[in-house]
Here is the input.
Amino acid sequence: MELFTPDVRLEKVEDITCELLESRGITALLIDVDNTLVSRATSELTPSVIAWMQSIKQAGISCCLLSNNWHGVIHEYAAQLGVPIIDKAMKPLPIAYIKALHTIGARRATTAMVGDQFFTDIFGARLCVMPSILVEPLSLTDLWYTKIFRKLEKKLQKQS
Ligand SMILES: [Mg+2]
Here is the structure.
């Protein structure tokens, strides 16, 4: 089950500190959007997440959003945060991870994927041989197919 195991588990993105990244040699982040940065229940970026992103960027960490979402609104989130975005990513397929790395001129070994889902965010990072950080989903509101994945994730967590 190593393929679905993140390197770091945290409650929320704001717990990702510059010290943590520095200690692991991470200089760039690819970040999932839905239920990682933006709650599916409210569909709004919180001041706390916006402040976190500013501090991470100020510390020199390159960031790119990486989302399977295809709706225009995620481009508004990226604009609000001042970071590039790759949408329709089809995670866990590696192609969009590579595209995102290329977009911000980052290398796999020093870039971590941040997300709330084992089967897309974390599995994809494993396939790309990249570090990964799992956070708790911001809301229990999920797409129907995500709900199925959540059940499988719970089983996996019980085993590990
Ligand atoms: Mg997500």
About this structure: The chain has six helices and six strands. The beta strands are 8-10, 28-31, 62-66, 85-86, 111-115, 132-135. Residues 32, 34-36, 115-117 surround magnesium ion (CB under 6 Å).
